[in-house]
Amino acid sequence: METIPVNNLEAVTISTARRLLNTVFGYPEFRGRQQDIIAHVAMGGDAFVLMPTGGGKSLCYQIPAIMRPGVGVIISPLIALMHDQVAALQELGVNSAYLNSSMSPLEVQDVKRRLRAKEFDLLYIAPERLLMDHTLEMLEGIPIALFAIDEAHCVSQWGHDFREEYLQLSILHQRFPSVPRIALTATADAPTRKEIVERLGLTDAPAFIAGFDRPNICYRIELKDNPRQQLLRFIKNEHPNDSGIVYCLSRKKTEETAAWLCEKGWNALPYHAGLPNSIRRENQERFLREDGVIIVATIAFGMGIDKPDVRFVAHLDLPKSIEAYYQETGRAGRDGLPADAWMAYGMADVTIHRQLIDKSEADEPHRRLEHRKLSALLGLCETASCRRRVLLKYFGDELQKPCGNCDTCLVPVETWDGTMAAKKAVYLVHQTGRMFGAVHLIDILLGKETERTKRFRHHDLNAYGKGSELSEKEWASVFRQLVAGGYLAVDMERYGGLTITSQGENMLRSDERIYLRRDPVKVAGRKKKQGKQRAHLADNASYELFEVLRSLRLELARAAGVPPYVIFHDSTLEVMSAVKPSSFEELEQISGVGERKLQKYGKAFLAAIAGHMESA
Ligand code: ADP
Ligand code: ZN
């Protein structure tokens, strides 16, 4: 007789999960730790999952929910997305529904009736709705496959996405002790992680923590020169037909920039918390549903934006921390295809942020923390080494070698021995009483007579005019890097003047050598990265076919009232355009084409491909 392996249950579970992955979702392989997580939860275990945006968290609860008897309940604060999430699942042939405050009582009744009839595999629900007595009572009356707590960092009172109701979710454990719970988030530093696990009663559950790296995102940071033109050049050269997000600090600037981009022929829409709800909703919808829309937004935009084909995220202003930068840029390229995170920054941005922090209501320790976070971001901007390395290190991950996909890797930064310049600069700060900004100090170094140099009798200093070996821009760069390197600091108590840190004082006395990065001479001449964006499309014929399939997709999406990516992702269309399948069998081999989609759209896409081949 054959012996039954102890882990037979696990083997069977994995093979079932894999079959669902292939047939329902149309993907050939699991990514990262998906398989471990799915097997664990499908067999009834609790789990905590930390994965970067785009890592593939949804499958981690969707597949076990389909496998286990009963309905999988997904708790999410992002009401605006529920409709599209459910539409995407319906397209895959997975019966699902949502319950939130945007629905009429009649609609709610209908969903509840169908829940009792066990019609659904998945139910998306807002936390406030879940916690209502009658909802909990209803759920107690039907079989539940699992609870998935999405955006689990909302439980943290320190975080910026804190949701009161999340604190009460421990009730799930008490009222449904035998139902597995899986908490998921993309943003959690160690203390937040601990908070999530404790508050949700998951201390005994295994934590599945994926690396933070987003290898398909190319990080680029350049100096502000003429930011609008820089942005325009970036979009025009590299993303002329793509969807993207442009972040600005102020509401006014989002509107002005969007209007300006429209004038230049782009399809750009503003988004900020001051716009009427209806306009916000409309702009977000258009961003999700049309191809090639650029949204120009404040940080009010983005939490849970589930659009996989955002090809670039641009920052026209500095975010306030590396966390914020990583979260915002993380909205690019969730589909795993190449995407760009591009930023233009200048010293003025830093001053504005310092002022915002000092004007804020926060108490002293918090403000100090905010200042430190800003400094860390400045360090990223001024680094001469691999940006990804700096980013990952900040989150506690180590990258063995430079990434090869950031600006400092692609165009290595030249460095120069700036020891003398650094000493001159820091010493001048000291001599002038630690109260002036870089502009005035540079005037002194270059021997420029101004109102101020006269008023403060600064031409009497022996440093006056002794810095002509560097240009104004080069001195500005020296001061910026000294701030970023922690030798100088912006002192808000003295109106944003520069002061010397203890590290700066040590530097004056030591013979440590300081290497500074040389700012690129001109960005305009940068070679275009054409062809990089659509890796599969080697030739023009494939590219044309891609455009044909893209417009077919848009047509079908409009008719069905869903975003285009719900029908097929760009990556799937790319492979189709390259492979040019001529039969259902060939089409089915392509990643992203599951059984349901083959049935529903196979014919239309095969016809479009055949038609294009004939006319070509
Ligand atoms: P997250 O919620 O972690 O940000 P999603 O669950 O939205 O990520 O997944 C990101 C994208 O990756 C989605 O478009 C999803 O369809 C795709 N994806 C997830 N898992 C796989 C896989 N195993 N193979 C191919 N694509 C996948
Ligand atoms: Zn790099």
What does this structure look like?
This protein is an alpha/beta fold and 616 residues long. It has 4 domains: 6-209, Rossmann fold; 217-410, Rossmann fold; 415-517, Winged helix-like DNA-binding domain superfamily/Winged helix DNA-binding domain (Arc Repressor Mutant, subunit A); 530-615, DNA polymerase, domain 1 (Orthogonal Bundle). Helices cover 47% and strands 13% of the residues. The strands form 4 sheets. Strands 3-4-2-5-6-1-7 form a 7-stranded parallel sheet, sandwiched between helices. Helix 19 (438-446) crosses helix 21. Residues 522-532 have low confidence and may be disordered. Zinc ion is lined by residues 386-388, 402-403, 406, 408-409. Adenosine-5'-diphosphate is lined by residues 27, 29-31, 34, 51, 53-59, 306, 308, 334-335.
List the helices and strands and how they pair.
Blueprint: H1 8-25, H2 34-42, E1 47-50, H3 57-67, E2 71-75, H4 79-91, E3 96-99, H5 105-116, E4 122-125, H6 127-130, H7 133-140, E5 144-149, H8 170-175, E6 181-185, H9 190-199, E7 207-209, E8 217-223, H10 227-238, E9 243-247, H11 251-263, E10 268-271, H12 277-289, E11 294-297, E12 310-315, H13 322-329, E13 339-345, H14 347-359, H15 364-382, H16 387-394, H17 407-410, E14 415-417, H18 419-431, H19 438-446, H20 451-455, H21 472-484, E15 488-491, E16 497-500, H22 502-509, E17 515-517, H23 540-560, H24 564-567, H25 570-579, H26 584-588, H27 595-615
Parallel strand pairs: 1-6, 1-7, 2-4, 2-5, 3-4, 5-6, 8-13, 9-11, 9-12, 10-11, 12-13
Antiparallel strand pairs: 14-17, 15-16
The protein binds adenosine-5'-diphosphate and zinc ion.
